[in-house]
Amino acid sequence: MSKTALTILIIIVLIVVGYFIWGGGPAKTEEPNLETVSQEMPVEGSNTPEMIVEAGKNIQEFDISGAPFKFSIKEIRVKQGDTVRINFTNNEGLHDWVIDEFAAKTKQLKAGESETVEFVADKKGEFEYYCSVGTHRAQGMVGNLIVE
């Protein structure tokens, strides 16, 4: 093999090795979906549900914040029979958190205010939660509670 061919081969090997070391080739992992939170696959950070056992009941606790036309969590998954505790904080504007099928709702909160609502997820299915202020729901301030 000639010196030129050997030199080219060494350069190619170094480029490939460098790509995998610094370029993040196939070894990269996919980022988790931060908008979906469930008991089976908790997401790290402030939106991580906390399983609490209190007086013999399983409580799934979620921290959700509201801002103009969006909630910080778009989907929540729990098991039928779980008690669901929502700690809702309004970051901006005027918002609330409502889920009709479980008769659960917060009052309308100003920016910086928080309220906690708790209910038992006693029926299976997908249920929409939303902000009832003005046209916020129609403008996309919604999410889904999935009870398995």
Question: Your description of this structure?
Answer:
The chain has one helix spanning 3-22, and strands spanning 36-38, 50-54, 57-67, 70-71, 75-78, 83-90, 94-95, 98-99, 104-105, 109-110, 114-120, 125-130, 142-147. With 148 residues, it is mainly β. The chain has two domains: 1-30; 36-147, Immunoglobulin-like. The chain crosses the membrane at residues 6-22. Keywords: Copper, Membrane, Metal-binding, Transmembrane, Transmembrane helix. GO terms for molecular function: metal ion binding. Residues 60-142 form the EfeO-type cupredoxin-like domain.
Provide a short characterization of the protein structure.
By secondary structure, the chain is mainly beta.
Give the secondary structure arrangement, pairings included.
Blueprint: H1 3-22, E1 36-38, E2 50-54, E3 57-67, E4 70-71, E5 75-78, E6 83-90, E7 94-95, E8 98-99, E9 104-105, E10 109-110, E11 114-120, E12 125-130, E13 142-147
Parallel strand pairs: 1-5, 3-6, 5-13
Antiparallel strand pairs: 2-3, 3-4, 6-11, 7-10, 8-9, 12-13
